[in-house]
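Give me structure tokens for this 294-residue protein.
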Amino acid sequence: MLEEKRITIFTPTYNRESTLPRLYQSLCRQTVSDFYWLLINDGSIDNTETLVKGWQLEEKIQIVYFYQENSGKANAHNAAVKYADTELFLCVDSDDYLVDNAVKRILEYWEENKNSTGILALRGDRSGQPITKWESTVKYATLLEATRIYGLRGDTMLVFRTEILKKYFFPVFQGERFVPESYLYDQIDLEGKLHILPEVLYLCEYRPDGYTANIRKVNCNNPNGYLAYIQQRLKLDKEIKYKIADTIRYIGIKCVQKDGRLLKDTIYPKLTILFLGIGWLFYIKVYWRFTRKW
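Here you go.
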């Protein structure tokens, strides 16, 4: 039986035996142990399973391990949220890790700010220098407000109240393995605001084989997932400049799909017609080189 903990630290992993030990060691160094590490192996063909089972035998931290056929981070996230029974939920990617007092600071801050949907903290590089750009003094904001109004730039560390996460799941599309994380974040934003913790608690490096470095190709290979995110964002957009920008992105991904439903599926038909040319040029610039072999 699992010992009761307050935080689920979830890690989806695919062929990351070279980077997982760094994350494991960072969790072993945490100054408080009020968490369990939930790993979902997304069909790895390396030695990930052997590594993790060895760590479980060490019993330095509490580890819960599952294997699934390769189906992507979104599917792994859905499974992890269903399993989690802690107060808080944090996703840490398999090539990233935490500073030694991260769990302690999360819990300290949460005790003072339980009226929020969670905590937004900063990410840093391996030297600890912030890669998240945050200069505002605002203490509460949704993720979209933080980005569009208060100048947030770059990736962040996001800790969510688990009971809120359990209301929302990524859609699943046959043959696809990716849905932008903002699809979920936009829904959680409707529940309330995050509390901003302007400290670097999460350290990372961007790998050439990761999602960030290959996002355009990833979108092309998973057009339904990306379209679901854009369609949802268009419904939430309030200002015309964002409706225009997202309509152009909508046209671009529809060009990738080549399904002939551009006007039938659009949220804003008039904007789609008006910006059809720009949207097509966006497709040529961003996606065409990934789709021409089709």
